[in-house]
């Protein structure tokens, strides 16, 4: 079967599997009281991962699928930061002791919308309530349009080790169509500032499937990005879901690439990273061969969480800020998404959890299978099942459902072992979906498989 045939047959709407079960299945059954209990039950020796969501941007990018609010005034941002600091104190007080963190991540929205002194204050406050463990990583997402050298220096001064720059595309026509105009020289300047101040672990986010993109134009963008020497690149497919994000209606749908063209952009772009010496990591990440992400892949120690592929092995991810999502041994939690309600809840002394999901033993088993497929593109069902007191024979129904994917050369089955082929890499989510007990394939809440 040709790539074009696969594109037509498997153009399904599927989860990205940054968690399992996925966020659309969270419910109000898990709320503040449950979260308090889960926090109190954590082993004091458990290393934590901390995620802080800065829920503001100065402008709306029309491709954005994140929870964010647009403002040109700083007063609402300062007031929001005050609520986040209050939440940090509240959650830290609910833990059994002052616990340590191995990973600290700032996302958005746009963390660079904060003033440099306020960003420093935020990190210092977190480090006053949580111990920074040896070798801990502190990572910040950056919008080049709002980043300044003062901000970069503040990042370095408080121990930031990694920066992730939102690029998406360098072509002017594409940038204008998605309302994110940032010339190449602007991005290069931010990279220079980062290296000048000692932050050398630099990630870049690129997207395919945007309006007016072609395979040739995205290859040109990739070449320009790689000339800046990022350690890692995320190469995401644009998810056009205007029924969920109304600002996406501003994108000219007639300019969006066809399914076949999206596949071409994905395949040719991926090949270009590899040709330039980067290691393909899972579905959509690429890393320098000596980067920790590539090393984790080689050691089969790669993980996947709400930030994508990661070396983060912390058993508990604690979220701060509106719409932040966390993961604990007992299950998942999600913060209130509406900023006003989030602030009122926090200031009333209540954890702002509005939804979540307690994971069952079966969920954990299936999550392990899906994570190995997403990370390693292979799984030994017998080995994984045995870790949960189960057997590969428990998945005969799921294995039978893989027959089409096997016949089409997407996956190879050898007894209880599954291996996604090189041609099947873009469709690994379709393989994972066979083990997803919650999924209604084709629901509009999910993005295209490629």
Structure description:
By secondary structure, the chain is of the alpha/beta class. Helix content is 36%, strand content 22%. The protein contains 16 helices and 21 strands. It has a nine-stranded mixed β-sheet with strand order 10-11-9-8-7-6-5-2-14, with helices on both faces. The protein has a three-stranded antiparallel β-sheet with strand order 15-16-17, with helices on one face. A three-stranded antiparallel β-sheet has the order 18-20-19. Helix 4 runs parallel beside helix 5.
Strand content: 15-25%
Structural category is: alpha/beta
Give the strand tally: 21
Strand numbers in spatial order across the main sheet: 10-11-9-8-7-6-5-2-14
Return residue spans where pLDDT drops below 50 for at least 5 consecutive residues: none
Roughly how much helix do the residues carry, as a percent range?
25-40%
Largest sheet: 9 strands, mixed
Number of helices: 16
User: Radius of gyration in whole Å, from Cα?
Assistant: 21 Å
Overall 3D shape:
globular
- Separation, N- and C-terminal Cα atoms: 17 Å
Task: Give a quick summary of the entry.
With 450 residues, the protein is of the alpha/beta class. It has 16 helices and 21 strands. The protein is 36% helix and 22% strand.
Key descriptive features of the protein:
alpha/beta, single chain, 16 helices, 450 residues, three-stranded antiparallel β-sheet, nine-stranded mixed β-sheet, 22% strand, globular
Question: Secondary-structure map with pairings?
Answer:
Blueprint: H1 3-9, E1 13-14, H2 32-40, E2 48-54, E3 56-57, E4 69-70, H3 75-94, E5 100-108, H4 116-129, E6 131-142, H5 149-157, E7 162-168, H6 172-177, H7 184-196, E8 201-208, H8 215-226, E9 232-237, H9 259-275, E10 279-281, E11 285-287, H10 292-298, E12 303-305, E13 308-310, E14 316-320, E15 325-328, E16 331-335, H11 339-347, E17 353-358, H12 361-376, E18 378-380, H13 381-387, H14 396-400, H15 403-407, E19 411-414, E20 417-420, H16 428-433, E21 447-448
Parallel strand pairs: 2-5, 2-14, 3-4, 5-6, 6-7, 7-8, 8-9
Antiparallel strand pairs: 1-21, 9-11, 10-11, 12-13, 15-16, 16-17, 18-20, 19-20
Helix pairs in contact: 3-4, 3-11, 4-5, 8-9
